[in-house]
Protein: Ureidoglycolate lyase
Amino acid sequence: MRIARFSVGDDVGYGLIDTDEGGTQQYVSRISGHPLMGQIQLTGERAKIEDLRLLSPVLPSKVVCIGKNYADHVAEMSDITGETTEEPVVFLKPSTAVTGPGDPVFYPPISQRVDFEGELAVVIARPCREVPPERAKEVIFGYTVANDVTARDLQKSDKQWTRGKGFDSFCPIGPWIETGLTLEEAGDLRVTTTVDGELRQDGRTSQFIHDIPAVISYVSSFMTLLPGDVLLTGTPAGVGPVEVGSEMTVSVERVGELSNRVITRD
Structure:
């Protein structure tokens, strides 16, 4: 299933994405309640996807990010982030950084370089801690697409990553949650990023230094993960700057496509 969060006016709800028989028109079929809180039931309401506004598919209590998880990305960023480490590199983005598909990403006036970082994201299904790798699939609700937008100059000058990664709008997530992938399938998906239609990143999740079970086990060894928390799995090589007006599009095979335009805040 593909589960989206949407709004129509002031009304916010969840729905399942489906297509017509020709495969050209997408619809959202509304469900009752919250998909993470129980059995999914259709309400009978259905609308064309273009008649709705898609939102970030979850509102996580925290976004847990894995840095330096592709060897080629480690090599291109070694002057800022250093070399590969034996254990995963973990950092957090605040919930206030989360934004949805099609929403603007605001270029901070104090930064001279803002970068895109396309990633596969994991959505957590239930409260969990100290999860053994062999049980990681039990705590995964599904997968979505994320862009770990980064003020690269601030990341470098601060010597740590909180400010450079944490601006409002610096964590686009969407367009929905894909629940139909096995853990094995999620371990070999193509991840690409384009800027204004030009391909900038092209990698596969099979290139992870630390795979999804290892990451979930490591993170849950020191913090409790809650339903709806989002885990960003790392970005492949090819990260680079965007300008005001640039449109960033991150695509993850079999999951979806996430586009956001960079603007200045009025």
Notes: The mean pLDDT is 95. The chain has two domains: 2-54, 63-263.
